[in-house]
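2024-03-11 09:14:02 INFO worker-7 job=invfold-0412 stage=load source=structure_tokens
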């Protein structure tokens, strides 16, 4: 049942990654074409292609294998953190309002992973955030946006908040459903096991009673 739950959770992670890929493409196009902020499109597209390849490999894994390990979930989330770090590096570093998407990765790790790997993911995300504070490619802002930098940052933070909340709530809701279904299944198995042990004990007691009465009864003449 644990493996079945992890497979369902991996499939949900794949779905969330598809949404993240679409969100990245839409955001890049809006920033680059509509707002006139020149982004390094080729490197950012390469990162997106890596995420698409990861999703395809994950779907193949789900179909071919009945087991999904904590290590696999951990590695996939590490790749997601790596992809987010690269995209932020290419688009302004820690000053990018989408930097708070690290919290989304940490929240997913806290729900999906064992304790040691969840904390390891926190350390990796923290290291990525720290690295981005001093290492990044600055964005060349058009003259029309130079006086509205703070306003653009607030708008980006708002979009990031709405995006993270919209992705996180349905995902965590389904994760909780999967976990409750697993707990209910395990409780049912425990109850069946207790019933079998009780029935076996009663059967043994009845056999012992019959044997005892047979020994006490006088022989037939």
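2024-03-11 09:14:09 INFO worker-7 stage=emit residues=221
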């Amino acid at each position: 049942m644990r493996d079945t739950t992890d497979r369902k959770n991996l499939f949900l992670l794949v779905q969330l990654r598809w949404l993240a890929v679409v969100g990245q493409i839409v955001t890049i196009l809006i920033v680059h074409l509509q707002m006139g902020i020149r982004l390094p499109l080729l490197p950012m597209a390469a990162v997106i292609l890596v995420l698409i390849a990861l999703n395809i490999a994950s779907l193949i894994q789900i179909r071919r294998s009945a087991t999904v390990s904590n290590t696999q979930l951990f590695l996939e989330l590490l790749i997601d953190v790596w992809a987010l770090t690269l995209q932020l590096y290419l688009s302004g570093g820690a000053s990018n309002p989408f930097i708070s998407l690290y919290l989304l990765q940490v929240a997913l790790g806290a729900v999906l992973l064992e304790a040691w790997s969840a904390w390891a993911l926190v350390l990796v995300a923290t290291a990525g955030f720290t690295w981005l504070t001093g290492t990044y490619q600055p964005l060349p802002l058009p003259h029309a946006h130079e006086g509205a930098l703070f306003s653009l940052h607030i708008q980006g933070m708002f979009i990031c908040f709405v995006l993270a909340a919209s992705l996180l709530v349905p995902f965590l809701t389904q994760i909780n459903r999967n976990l409750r279904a697993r707990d209910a299944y395990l409780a049912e198995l425990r109850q069946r096991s207790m019933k079998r042990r009780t029935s076996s004990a009663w059967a043994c007691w009845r056999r012992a009673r019959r044997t005892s009465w047979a020994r006490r009864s006088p022989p037939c003449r």
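2024-03-11 09:14:09 INFO worker-7 stage=report msg="The longest helix spans residues 149-216."
2024-03-11 09:14:10 INFO worker-7 job finished
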